Amino acid sequence: MTLLFGITVLSATLGCALAVAQEYVAPSGPPPVRVARPDADPVPLEWVPPALAQLSLSAPVKSNFTLDRTMLGIAAGLVPDTDAPTRQAMNKLDGVSVHTMRFNEAGIPDEGAVAAVRASYHLRGWKHVVTTSDKGSPVHNGTTDVWVVLDGMNVRGAVVLAETPRSLTLVTVAGNLSPVDLMHLRGHFGIPKLDAGDFKDAPAQ
């Protein structure tokens, strides 16, 4: 499976990185589960919750890939001059990883596993800033969760989990961002186009 498939499930605004990302081939197996050291590596791009790796085994179609700082720099250089804030935000990223899986008509086989994915970020101490549900749209019918790792007022990384009835997408971004930078990344790399007012503390899990 080529990375081109993985790109197609993301926002069309990532097209500026497509020419670079096509050089990668997405692994056919489940995303790797690695032991992360929170103190040494607070935003591990390659780590995924064990429950997500287990769900991946049931997904007929899946795609996993990572964009490093070099590729992100090239992508930022292709952003139009009229969108300088987005280019600046991309230049602050150290990496982005995306894990996408699509299921058959029966949908996600174990909703409890999805709940376990959400709980894993709570247990890691990540700040849950927003949960949104959009059940009125025929395209984005599902739930989106956002967690962030904060260093004072800056965002060291973020995770977006987007769930629809037949798919899951997990996006992890690492870098030294401000909250405003995170807003400019909306619509890129699978990060939903949330309104500014959506970024607020979510209810305790």
UniProtKB/TrEMBL annotation:
Task: Specify the signal sequence span.
Answer: 1-21
Which InterPro entries does this UniProt record tie to the protein?
DUF4252
Entry keyword annotation includes Signal: yes
Q: Keywords, A to Z?
A: Signal
Q: Which domain of life is it from?
A: Bacteria
Q: Can the keyword Signal be found in this entry's annotation? A: yes
Q: What's the protein name?
A: DUF4252 domain-containing protein
UniProt organism field: Telmatobacter sp. DSM 110680
Upper lineage ranks? Bacteria, Pseudomonadati, Acidobacteriota, Terriglobia, Terriglobales
